Amino acid sequence: MKSKSLVSISDYTKEEYLKILNLAAEFEANPVQEILKGFVVATLFFEPSTRTRLSFESAVNRLGGRILGFSDAGTTSSTKGETLRDTILTVSNYADLIVMRHPVEGGARFASEISPVPIVNAGDGANQHPSQTLLDLYSIRKTQGRLDNLNIFMIGDLKYGRTVHSLLQALSHFNTTFYFISPDELKMPDEYKMFLDNLGLKYYEYKEFTDIVDKADIIYMTRVQKERFSDPIEYEKTKNAYVLRANMLENTKPKMKVLHPLPRVNEIHLDVDDHESAYYFEQAQNGVYTRQAIISSILGVK
Ligand code: CP
Question: Number of structural domains, the chain?
């Protein structure tokens, strides 16, 4: 993994996922180490973020490295017309690794092809969010004790939600059965269903889930991605499609957990926060350990 960019979750093998997860467990046990002393990591966020940017920065800080970058592209020379190519070629002089979020699908792949330093994709449009996927796998394994043969419910915006696209690809290595629950307008795109068909993996599509919730090992809720809609009326039609409430979790498996990449809007009611199944804030915490593992692997210090 040394010097290898992480652009799509499919850039890594199953063995590489497991190596990252095992390393993340080591960091969870011992999160403060001086192994990145002398390294500089750049975080270039062309789109808003709370968890991804701050957990990457926390990860680097706890490992003794330095951070530079921006959280608002409006303060950078891209507003003067600088191209992404020139920004990457410039920042690669200042940092050993670049973490980048960009609204254009394929933006991170493009950056990785021209950058002399590794790129970690922190989200490119509706396409991929691979570091989120690794922390999701970590959270699933930690709560279920395994990754194999689980029933994973994905609920909400399966069309524009990049986290479910990356997670589906990763879980395809673990004989997952998928339950896709969405309104018609926000169904899982055909390309991902064809991907599962080709692997002979099972998936089911529903519009409601209350009658089948007892089958779930994981409920992975997603926000309707307002920023990806070209038509605001379409967003208004679907934004309240699902609101998970605590009383909907009465018949679930004892170990079942509710995950959400966050931010949430209103798709998980606040009354779920006190339910034993709620795991989304611990999931966000797992992001620090997982990102420590990703960065230290790519920089070759672990
Ligand atoms: N999960 C996630 O990507 O959150 P942020 O948009 O806050 O980074």
Answer: 2
